[in-house]
Amino acid sequence: MLHSAVPRLHPPIRIAALYHFTRFPDPAALQAPLARLCEEEGVKGTLLLAGEGVNGTIAGRDAAIERVLDHVRALPGCADLAYKESRAETLPFHRMKVRIKREIVTMGEPDIDPVANAGEYVAPEDWNALIDDPGTIVIDTRNDYEVAIGTFAGAIDPHTRTFRDFPAWFRAHRETLLGDTPPKVAMFCTGGIRCEKATAFLKSEGVDQVYHLQGGILKYLETIPPEHSRWEGECFVFDQRVSVVHGLEQGECELCHACRMPIRPEDRASPLYQEGVSCPACHADRTDEQRAGYAERERQTRLAAARGETHVGATHPQARGD
Prior knowledge:
This protein is α/β, with parallel strands linked by helices and 322 residues long. Helix content is 31%, strand content 21%.
C-alpha cells in the first residue's frame, strides 16, 4: 500500500536573532551554564554577554531553541526578551560560541546606558508619519556596506565602516545636523540594537527629541505593505539570506566570499566580479596572490559541496557583524 508523503510545513531549523539591554553585574558567571546548555541541545551560533546585556543569533531544532530562549529569559532583567525568527533547511553555523565582551554592540562609549536613557520607540505603523514630518531628520545608523543596498527615502548616510565610528561622525556634523532649531531625530537599524544604543548616545549629548524604529527595518518590512512603504532597495541581514525585501522575502543580493560584502545583480555583471574571488568593492584592494587563495578556497568549497560536506573555510554571512 502506498502512502503519500506528509508535506513539511516549514524548514526544520529555527534561527533566533535576539538582543536585550539589561544590567548583568557579573556576565562571566553566566557564560558557562549558557554554553553548556547550547552544547547539550546541539544549538549553534554566537551569543555575546556584557555588563549591558545579551546579543546574538542561534540556530537549532525548535525544542532546543526554545530551551535556550527560556534560559536567557530567566537571566536578570531578561523576562521580556524579544527575538526575530527565520527558518533554514540546514544549520547555518558550524559551532557555538558564548563570549564575554565589553559591549554587546560595540560603540566605544562606556558611559552610554540604553537601559535608562534610550530614545522613544516608534511602531512601524507610525514610522512613516514621523519621517515624513519636515521637522524630522532621519539617520541610518548602519554601516556603509549595508546602506549601499537599501535605506529609507531621504535618510542620512553617515558612511561609517563600523558602529564605533558613529559617535565621532555625529560630533563632527552636529551643528549641520541640528542647526539653530534642533529637529526631531529619527534613527533606525536592521533589528533595533544599534539605533537603541545610538539614541542613548544622542541623549547623552544633549539631544532631547530622539526616536527609533521599534523592531528595526525587519519589523517594518514585515509589517508595512509595499504600496505604503518608504523603504527603497533591500535590507542586508547577517544570515544565509544575505538580504530581504518586503514580507521578509529573500532579496537578490549575494555575498562576496572575498570581502564578505553584499553584492547586487549589477555588481555580478561587472568584469571585476569573479564568484568567490572578487567583486567591484574589493577587487582593487586585493593582491593577485590573495585572489589566487580565494580561488582555491572557492574550488575546495565546491568540491566539498559536491561530496555533501561543508568546507571549513566556507564563509557565512554573519561573519562580518557590526
